Predict the structure.
Amino acid sequence: MANEELFTNRAENYQKSRPGYAEGVIGLLLGEILKPDGRIADIGSGTGLFAKPLIEHGFSVYCVEPNAKMREQAVREFAGNPHFISIAAVAEATTLEEHSMDIVAAASALHWFEMENFQRECKRILKPEGIFFAVINCRNYTDPFTLRQHKLCQRLCPDFTSLSHGLEKTIPRLEILLGKAYQSQRFDFPLTYTKEAFIQRSLSSSYAPEPDSPEEREYIKALRQLMEEFFPHTNRITLPNQSAAFWGRPI
């Protein structure tokens, strides 16, 4: 399945359950990186989780997303907001004007891009002094629940590699795009869910079993049992997590 189609059957769960990012990430952008009148391209924008706080601060965000179902969720979220510009395109061919963007961003998305072509496209659409910015959430593998969840996913999700697979694939891609001189900062961002929302979050992952399959039902059952073991007598769970931000000028 092409990358742009992976989330077609998961868009609703994605919109309902995916967390955003730590407030410090947006504070970093607003305080140190983004000009007051800056233009932002959010590449692989999904349902608009990263774009939302920037739009709320009055910035124009060009949300480039190839998946129609994900775009539809964002269009409903930002209906009528002039700062939200939806673009149906892939990361490697955004259709944006040459040297038009102050920031090109990828939020939990860089690991899906074909890097040689994206690097070329990123340099094409960025202004000469423009910045590439990436952010991704990172689960804490010293956490006992996270370790058990990892083993559960290994057993029940054939395409699973790691709960940190996005970060693990992002780091080498950053070096391709930015060299070794990029900057980074991490912000604590514990993830709190109701148990039902955690199920939805888990089902929104690219490696989750296919919707409405026997494998998905087994996966849901195992997740419920795991939550009951670690979080009995409560409907809410909190998991240690950080939002990791990376930025620099493409080489």
